Each structure stands twice: as structure tokens, then as C-alpha cells.
Request: fold
Amino acid sequence: RFSGVTGVQTCALPISVFFISIFMFLLGIMLLVLGVTQIYLINKSRRAGLIINGYFFVIPAIVAFLGLFIMVNPFTFVNVTVIILFGVSSLVYGVANIIRYFVIKNQESNARKNI
Reply:
């Protein structure tokens, strides 16, 4: 027995892959912008006199690279692996921001005590 739903699913599959590819491209842009912005803000904080180690630049650079990687190949990488990669890089980015916040807050409080 043939169902009309199967025909609709077959016709809708290319459309869904197209929209998922566009979505992945936009997520790639978001990661790239977040990574570059974070690198800029870390560099600005370093110039302002905060003691920031070089390893603070590693995570934003990786996030920016992954965003560029997803942007360049959104149609090729429409699968679960890229979505997992995006999720992991977003989580790592968030954890790195939390750590960075506490380090900078600690340095600010130490600087205020010395004044």
C-alpha cells in the first residue's frame, strides 16, 4: 500500500536540507563573530593593564575557526556531527567566559585594594 505521506516526505527532504544548511551557515557566522569579538575584548583588556595569559586566546580562536569551518561547508556538513560540534564549542565558549569573568573580577578587586 502506498501512502501519500511518503510522497510528501520525499518532496520535502531537499527543502529541509536547504533550510538546515542555511541555519548551519548562520550558526557558523555567529561562532565566528563570537570568537573574533572575544579575541578583541581580551586584547583590549590586556592593553588596559589586566594580566591576561596567552591561553585565554586559545578558546576564542578555536571557536572562530569552527565558525569559519561551518560557514565554508554548511551544505557538506549537514549532519549530527556538525551539530554536536557546534553544541560542544558553544558550551566550551560559555565555560571559558565564566572562568574569564572570575579571573578579571579577582584582578580588579586586587587592584582596588592596592589603591
Q: What stands out?
A: The mean pLDDT is 76. The helical segments are 4-47, 58-72, 80-114. The chain is about 80% helix and 0% strand.
